Amino acid sequence: MDFLVVDFEFSVPRSYGKPRAWFSEIIEVGAIVLDSNGKLGDKTYSAFVKPRFWPRLAEESYGITGIRQEDVDHGVSLEEAISHLQELAPRRDTYVVAWGDADRKVLGNVCEKYGLAYPFIWDNYIDLAEQYKDYRSLERLLSLKKAIEENAIEQIGILHSALDDAINAAQVMGKMMSEGWSAPMNEEYSVQSEKRIAEIISQKNINIV
């Protein structure tokens, strides 16, 4: 089974005067397919995404992500971005991989706010940062940059560029697989697990920076 390694860049709030109803929206998507042997494929996707509820980015967003207002103004809709991700990995039971759990939480929350169905199986998600910590028997989570350095992997591109981060995370995962690590897989998927989506994305005050 192939893995869809993704990275989402999110909008961030102003340092002052954040509206009560404000929430992080996805403003850039990057993804690459990693095969079951840990080999990076040539199928990738990258796009800026136009936020729907809060279209004007705070200056802080540019400071963290380097994404400009004109980038998102000419971006695709989230629906289009999701469609491209599903084309990369068309199987319904595809495993989505990201460095940390924030990508799943934000995607779930944004889909709920936009009135969209979550596009993947909620439990078919691998938090690679957590898996890396356990695999290396570390006491705390590491940044993706630190994991790249520890494994003497050549960093692709720049940090907080969605496709570059997805490729670098895939490189770390490929290295782990080459050493004998196996991705955790669900033996059986139950529709009941999707009910957990509403519980998690309905949590209040989820701060993603």
| Overall radius of gyration | 17 Å
Strand content of the residues, in percent?
15-25%
For the secondary structure, the number of strands is 5
The order of strands across the largest sheet is 3-2-1-4-5
Net shape: globular
Oligomer: single chain
> What structural category arises from helix and sheet content?
alpha/beta
Low-confidence stretches: 189-194
List the helices and strands and how they pair.
Blueprint: E1 3-10, E2 26-34, E3 40-48, H1 59-65, H2 69-73, H3 78-88, E4 95-98, H4 102-114, E5 125-127, H5 128-135, H6 144-150, H7 162-178, H8 195-201
Parallel strand pairs: 1-4, 4-5
Antiparallel strand pairs: 1-2, 2-3
Describe this structure in words.
36% of the residues lie in helices and 16% in strands. With 209 residues, it is of the alpha/beta class. It has a five-stranded mixed sheet with strand order 3-2-1-4-5, with helices on both faces. The longest helix is centred in the C-terminal third of the chain and has 17 residues, at 162-178. The radius of gyration is 17 Å and the shape is globular.
Key terms:
single chain, 209 residues, 36% helix, globular
Structure in a nutshell:
The protein is built from eight helices and five strands, in the order βββαααβαβαααα. It is α/β, with parallel strands linked by helices and 209 residues long.
